[in-house]
Structure formats: C-alpha cells, structure tokens
Amino acid sequence: MLTTEEDARTKLCPFQSHCINESGVIQHYEPPVYHPAMCAASECMAWRWGPLPIDGPEWVTAVQKAAEEIGDSTPNKRKAVRFVAENRERFGLPTRPTRGWCRRLSDTKTEA
Asked: Tens of pLDDT along 57-102?
C-alpha cells in the first residue's frame, strides 16, 4: 500500500524491536522483554519510493498547456507529455516521489 512518510512513521514495524530491560537481562539473567519499534520510513533500507504521478487534473492541465506552448497538435500529445515530464517544476508538479511502501511487508504497491 502506498503511503506518505508521515503516515508510515505512525505505524509499528513488525520486523524491528528493541529490548527494554537490557540491564536486567545482563545483570540478573531475566528474560528479555521486547518492545516494537515505529516505522523509520525512508530511513529504512526496506523503504521503496512509489512512482511519480502522471495522471490527475494537474497533469492533464500541464500537458494541455505544454501542447499549446510547443505546438503539439497530435491526438496523443506525446511531445507535450515528454516536455511536461522533463520540466515538472515549471508546471508546478512534484519533482520527487511523495509516497512509498515497505518492501518487506509487500511486493505490491496497490492503493488502499
């Protein structure tokens, strides 16, 4: 499931935990008590970024604007699409991914 880093950091990581009674384990041979850790999102090696969005109303508007700018009158606006993809910042579109997923939890990137 694709999610933002902020949302991911509110979830527990099922693969990482830390011992909360280390001194008792070392000094008194107590059994260790583990506490789950929170997701580290992009700071974790298992984090994978989702693709940059190429749909939605902002994208369509940018392609239409670019088509007028560069004179792309073809039905599929292929040149305009490429122009927008290469100049995202100019059209106010994100230049880096904003959502990702945990590779260890899932091999799929489905929307929820």
From this structure: 999 999 999 999 999 999 889 999 999 999 999 999 988 898 999 9
**DSSP conformation class of 11:** S
* CB neighbourhood size of 51 (10 A): 10
Angstrom distance (rounded) from CA 100 to CA 49: 4
12: tokens are: 């527990």
**Structural domain that includes position 68:** 53-96
Q: Which residues is 4 bridged to in the sheet?
A: 99
Structure tokens at 90: 């100019």
Dihedral over Cα of 37, 43, 45, 48: its sign: positive
Q: Are residues 44 and 76 in the same domain?
A: no
Q: What are phi and psi of 40, to 5 degrees?
A: -95, 0
Which of 15, 19, 4 minimizes the C-alpha distance to 100? Answer: 4
Number of residues that this document lists for the chain: 112
42 and 25 within one domain: yes
Position 6 confidence tier, pLDDT thresholds 50, 70, 90: very high
